Amino acid sequence: MPIRNIHERIYLAESPSGLLLIARRIGRTADSITRGFRIFRLHEGATQWLEVCNLDNGMLFLGLNTSFWLSASDFKEGEENSIYFTDDVIAEYCIMEQELDPGNDSGVFHLEDQSFSSICDDDMKLLYPHPVWVVPNP
């Protein structure tokens, strides 16, 4: 199994090349901010996960309501080989004593250079309800 610790959230998504398992690394501090991602593809017939470095001309969308892969040619507004993610850390907001800012762990992770960029303006804070992805119908 490719998962190493409890500080990773797990998502599954179908892609043209097979089932993907996405591990989202979360910080170990109270802020629970995303630190990175690892992507694995299920190797058919071998029942093992193989780590991959690109999304085959596609992009991933991860969140509380759903996780899915889209082709860059079907969604020209997106950036291929990128992961779009929303804040989905509900349990921590409910049980932690310190005040956290819900919705602030959203963004775009670029696989090519392992960098992050913002989804929205810095002045805009995403509040409850948590953001969800609306799946386009190409």
Structure in words:
With 138 residues, this protein is mainly beta. It has one domain (8-117). It is 4% helix and 38% strand. The protein is built from 1 helix and 9 strands. The strands form 2 sheets. It has a 5-stranded mixed β-sheet with strand order 6-5-7-8-9, with no helix packed on it. A 4-stranded antiparallel β-sheet has the order 1-2-3-4, with no helix packed on it. The protein is globular and about 40 Å long. The termini are far apart. The mean pLDDT is 80.
Q: Main beta sheet, described? A: 5 strands, mixed
Helix and strand composition category:
mainly beta
Helix content range of the residues, please? under 10%
Total domains: 1
Provide the succession of SSEs.
EEEEEEEHEE
What is the chains' assembly state? single chain
State the end-to-end CA separation.
34 Å
Number of helices: 1
Q: Would you count the extended β strands for me?
A: 9
Mean model confidence by pLDDT: 80
Strand content: 35-45%
Report the radius of gyration as a whole number of Å.
15 Å
Gross morphology is: globular
Largest sheet, order of strands side by side?
6-5-7-8-9
Unreliable stretches: none
Task: Name its key features.
138 residues, mainly beta, 5-stranded mixed β-sheet, 4-stranded antiparallel β-sheet, 1 helix, 9 strands, KIB1-4 beta-propeller domain-containing protein, KIB1-4_b-propeller, F-box_BR-signaling
Brief synopsis:
Helices cover 4% and strands 38% of the residues. It is mainly beta and 138 residues long. The protein is globular and about 40 Å long.
